[in-house]
């Protein structure tokens, strides 16, 4: 069963310079209990997608079209106070930078207990117990003492553990992790990835991993959604996107240096497009080595090319042998 | 290959002061770089790897004398760099500056927003006067084309360029003085994934063309493997392993290096990850652990590791490891 369905989502930012089409018709589903990777470079719309699902798109951004269903319920039709009971409780989010997402003037205990008490009618000591339980879940050393300390007394990796505990406090069904390891060192990144994989298995969490690192996606996710300039390029299982990738995914994989081999990197020419005036047709066509005239004029639809592998490309079929 | 740059027993401590307005007392030292030695040969790239706070950026700055070393020696083509910058004539200093340049991590912060690209790239000509004025224009266009930009870009300002293009401008400025050696401090880590390959390829092409040596400082091991001929790994201000790239990635010896390499996720579904998870985190460099600095996180640590500091020893041709039990891991 699909826990989350996003259909033709459009989130635009109305800036003084023009309308930035950050998310422009994104469609994907997230199956219950699965880990889905949302992959893309900066400006591909991956974070804005997560913000749209939680309806916390910052101004001047606005969701102007599409539908989002969570457990079959239309999220975009909910009133604001109904939505508040979803955030944290049913759908939760971990941010990229743990330092700026914790309040520096409150202890860990105070700021985490506040969340519990917003949603449940319990007293302070019960709330503190729930906080300690969550901190134990993310294996923060000595949680009883940790709740009396302030964020600056923890290292980056520990802060990210606290942020994960905060996101899990109310037992959400769906967790968005927005580049949770980008600011961390490699060895600490490995600890956090390990923790997320374990949590996903042990408590049956549905996880959407937002990242630009194909390596992390490969190690964590079954299903991947590849975004580029606000559009979905490809949806498929890890095996599918490695065996018969979309031209963008293919170019990206060839451009990334790999630890286990040395080879000539084939760089993608040009730059990421400006989303105020994105290229017409396929948004990747100005940088695509296979682009033909049709790619400039016609927006390629996202079609199922077999076994749930969805591709948005005019030429994919002929490039992959008919 | 001939040695170009030699770093001997280089040390940098940053003093830590006690709180208070009037009485500033030194209460300790951050051991940022602690007795490190290595060399860079002509035309090669040495990757300097480590996690944040291990002293890799400080090392780069010490070599260029952008940061004053506490003690130690840096020799460039036999010339004592630190002494020259302290006591040498301005001519000697300028000669050294011309042969060693730097490319910084953040191309958004390292270009003056009020100068045109022409001014930025020709500024080194003004300072070093190694090119007659009538040739400046041609030279700027030539540099722009070398880094893959167009002549009309010269009249523009930095804000009109994307991150990758700005990094190209920074590289053009660095090679304007025809240096023999460039310290590149995380030159691609602030760029988008699809742009990184462009800059790495550009750096490698320039090396082939001009024979420049690089000290490539990075925490991203995959890009280090791509660009380096030799790799030096630092942990808490010390070198733990130095080896030719192939050996370094295929047969790492030091337990820290092995954990570091195993922790990098590889984009290949056929490959199963075998991550060596290190417990805990990097300790504070103010009071670094005794003996081997890695011992509190090392699964093989013994009492000897706690007491005795291992020396950096050559265990195989060109392969240096600082571990008491290096032989057991061969």
Give a description of the structure:
The complex is a heterodimer of chains A (322) and B (330). With 322 residues, chain A is an alpha/beta fold. Chain A has 2 domains: 2-228, Rossmann fold; 248-322, no CATH class. Chain A contains 12 helices and 12 strands. In chain A, strands 6-7-8-3-9-10-12-11 form an 8-stranded mixed β-sheet, with helices on both faces. Chain A has a 4-stranded antiparallel β-sheet with strand order 2-1-4-5. In chain A, a hairpin with a 2-residue loop joins strand 9 and strand 10 (231-237). The mean pLDDT of chain A is 92. Chain B is an alpha/beta fold. Chain B is built from 11 helices and 12 strands. In chain B, helix 4 (117-128) runs parallel beside helix 6 (163-175). In chain B, 43% of the residues are buried.
Keywords, separated by commas or semicolons:
heterodimer; A: 322 residues; alpha/beta; Rossmann fold; 2 domains; eight-stranded mixed sheet; four-stranded antiparallel sheet; 12 helices; 12 strands; 33% helix; 24% strand; B: 330 residues; globular
Rg measurement of chain B, Å:
21 Å
Helical residue percent of chain A? 25-40%
Q: Would you report the number of β strands of chain A?
A: 12
Lateral arrangement of strands in the main beta sheet of chain B? 6-7-8-3-9-10-12-11
Assign the structural class of chain B, choosing from mainly alpha, mainly beta, alpha/beta, alpha+beta, or little secondary structure. alpha/beta
The run of helices and strands of chain B is EEEHEEHHEHHHEHEHEEHHHEE
Low-confidence stretches of chain A: none
